[in-house]
Amino acid sequence: MIEITGTYYDGRTSAVHVVEVRREEAVLHVRGGGIERSDPLASIAPSARLAGVPYTLRYADGAWLQLPPNAPVADWFPLRHRLETWVDRLERRAGVAAVSVLVVALALVALFGWGVPAAADYVGAHLPASVDRAIGRQSLTLMEGHVLAPSTLPAQRQADLRARFHRFVRRIGGPDDLQLRFYDSPALGANAFALGGGIIVVTDAMVRDLPDDDAFLAVVAHEIGHQRHRHMLRLVLRGSGVVAIGSMLIGDVSASSVIASIPAFLLNARYSRGFEQQADDFALAALPRAGISPAAFVRAMQALERAHPELRQDGNIRYLSTHPVTQERIARAEAAARAFGRATATH
Amino acid sequence: MGMAGKGDDMHEEALATGAEPAAPQAHVLPTTYPERPFEFRGSAGEYFRIWIVNLALSIVTLGIYSAWASVRTRRYFYANTWLAGSPFEYSARPLPILRGRLIAALMFLCYVFAGRTSPRLQLLAAALIAIVMPWLIVRGLAFRARYSAWRGLPFRFEPDTPGAYRWYLAMYLLIPLTLGLIYPYIKAKQQQWTVQHHRYGNAEFDFKADLTDYYMVFWATIGLALAWAFAAAMALLVAMGIVHALLGPFATRQHPIVVVAVGYLIYVPMYLGIYAYSRSRMLNLLYNNAGLAGGHRLRSNLSYVAMLGIYLSNTCAIIFTLGMAVPWAKVRMVRYRTAHLVLQPAGDLDAFVAETTAQTDVSALGAEMDGLFSIDIGL
């Protein structure tokens, strides 16, 4: 029988007793340092195996026995901590660590690329439209004080565009809770965006920079696509999911919150890009239904590009962008315009 | 403060509570007891394997396994922290932690979502959380203390819910009235409250705070924040000049990516520069003011510059290894903090005695909640 040197604490004082430990069948004998006891293994609760960490064996009377990490304690208690004993074996293999790196990488991609969006969209589908409206109103209130000032467009021009907008919505059978709003915004420049609950904002600069009213309707159709697919609500839900799950992961790895915000930013951009593409698809399908060629979308994109030269970029930073690359969007719109041309020619 | 360092906090909790030994009162010569340094014996390589395997299992099991993972991680850090020839011990069981975690995660998800939906909802959620927070703090401290031990004797946190409501809720209401000037006082009292309600065996912890120290840290942090903000503004001007020269003039508007990247390069050092200062000073105050019945004292001498260096290099390492350096970063920080902590015993470390009443189990909900909501328990 091998003897193992351990440390014994009686559970009543912090005194240290150095002891010799011997196991005979189902009994554990402890001797030395003024201690002498023999107990059935069944009355002792061992700790799980963990690399570099001593075992702690707990007696029913509160006493503790600490044994070195290389003691065969796990063999004495084959039925205890079966899950953790298995995990411990995995932790000791370099190959498993390498596989784990791969598993973590793949799982994170699956989790944030698919799991979080799917879960968020599922929740979103079960939320009433009043949530969208609440989000939209709040966002608008926040922006109205700062980046959005009252429109400087002539009232006649606004009324004219609104009338065209409503006619367009009726023709494409769009949602009937849409509100078109014009604002002056030097900070945003030529811009249009959809807030939750049917609010569509178009800046004065956008109206001025667009070459014609069909291009205006192309921009608006894109924003209606955002409304139709409840993109704002879904983006909010996905963002919440990323933060909540990310915090749980990070909470345990103890990284700094500064670091955590980088992947959150990139993910948000990714989700947003997907939504932009969906809104484009909606617009390119809606325009022909109103008898407008998707070529109007091409003109709108080109006008936007002239207004925002800083956004003209090559494809290599796409993973950082919130919008798909403009050239791609234009190419897709041109293809849709050709299809529209063929369709109208055959009629 | 932030989620940053939740693991650190646990560890430090062990050390704070783990402080030590109680001894016979009015002993003859305190000088006969040599200083006992704390020592961290873990290694980054060993911890890396534990970390990555447990992370993979947590993800594959959709978070269920994370309770086991967190117990193994904490045990690794506790059991590798040695004092006077004996390691600390963490003995919580995973199942109660899992239960606490699930409830906490659900509440946290609602909170985050409310925050993005409407400011009013968020205000309501924040108010609700503020009301339950002191109670959660008590439960969290009680849970951690209950399952931390050294030399076979457990720590304990004496649950003082009225005290928690006083120092973690009522006092905050005075902050606006005093224009924030009461803040250092609150921090001092929170540290005192936390430490004084801990026991090791039947020995009580004591806390002797000099308010002046806390006000010094407060004013120095504000001064430092102003200095960093000034430096950051200068750096921003220079960076804008460089970007302008490299990419050409785009009027006042830049591509969002450029803005974000430059923002990070300036914001991160500034944030860490201020955080490292208040963190190192507050930890020093916590440990240096804490003692254990019988005259045992703790001494901590963390240096601002060293802490900042570790935070900055850890951040860079984690970013450039896409997170793989997290175990190394964590071990490094714990090792530094442990190496700068010593116990000055005033008596025999073998003489601590257990409490006469046996401890009952403590729910894990509080411990999991305060981790997620990153409550600053003043440690």
What's the gist of this structure?
The complex is a heterodimer of chains A (347) and B (379). With 347 residues, chain A is of the alpha+beta class.
Largest interface: A-B, 76 and 91 residues
**Main beta-sheet strand count, sense and barrel state of chain B:** 10 strands, antiparallel, barrel
User: Tell me about the biggest sheet of chain A?
Assistant: 7 strands, antiparallel
Distance between the termini of chain A: 97 Å
**What is the mean predicted local confidence, pLDDT of chain A?**
85
Q: How many DSSP E strands of chain B?
A: 10
Helical/strand content category of chain A: alpha+beta
Return the average pLDDT of chain B rounded to an integer: 81
DSSP helical segment count of chain A: 11
Determine the fraction of residues in helical runs of chain B and give it as a percent range. Answer: 55-70%
Number of helices, counting only DSSP H or I runs of 4 residues or more of chain B: 13
* Total beta strands of chain A: 11
Rg measurement of chain A, Å: 33 Å
Structural classification of chain B: alpha+beta
Question: How are the elements arranged and paired?
Answer:
The complex is a heterodimer of chains A (347) and B (379).
Chain A: E1 4-9, E2 17-24, E3 27-32, E4 35-40, E5 45-46, E6 55-58, E7 64-67, H1 73-76, H2 82-91, H3 94-125, H4 129-144, E8 149-150, H5 155-172, E9 179-184, E10 192-195, E11 199-203, H6 204-209, H7 213-228, H8 231-253, H9 257-289, H10 295-307, H11 326-346
Parallel strand pairs in A: 9-11
Antiparallel strand pairs in A: 1-2, 1-7, 2-3, 3-4, 5-6, 6-7, 8-9, 10-11
Chain B: H1 6-17, E1 36-40, H2 44-60, H3 66-79, E2 81-83, E3 86-90, H4 94-117, H5 119-146, E4 148-150, E5 153-157, H6 161-168, H7 174-177, H8 183-196, E6 198-200, E7 203-207, H9 211-247, H10 256-289, E8 290-292, E9 296-300, H11 304-320, H12 326-339, E10 341-344, H13 365-372
Antiparallel strand pairs in B: 1-2, 1-10, 2-3, 3-4, 4-5, 5-6, 6-7, 7-8, 8-9, 9-10
Helix pairs in contact in B: 2-3, 2-12, 3-4, 4-5, 4-13, 5-6, 5-13, 6-8, 8-9, 9-10, 10-11, 11-12
